[in-house]
Model the fold of this input.
Amino acid sequence: MTYTPIKKVWIEEGCISCKLCSDIVPQVFLVEDDRDCVLQPEATRHFLPLAEEIEQAAEDCPVEVIQIERGAE
Ligand code: SF4
Done:
């Protein structure tokens, strides 16, 4: 099976600031009180080592606003 790395992660509108994603992967997601989730400044360097956790966060986000794009560089 060929593994396609994560190329891009972004948050669509509608985040409810529940902090679930930043609890799972604090290296990638930053959620300040009552503010929409944003990516950490250094997020991209964690896309490869933390791919599974990022996918988990996207799957578990209650409003499904975490988007992931896969693909070769
Ligand atoms: S899990 Fe989803 S709704 Fe919750 S803070 Fe993260 S992006 Fe926002």
About this structure: The two ends are 19 Å apart (CA to CA).
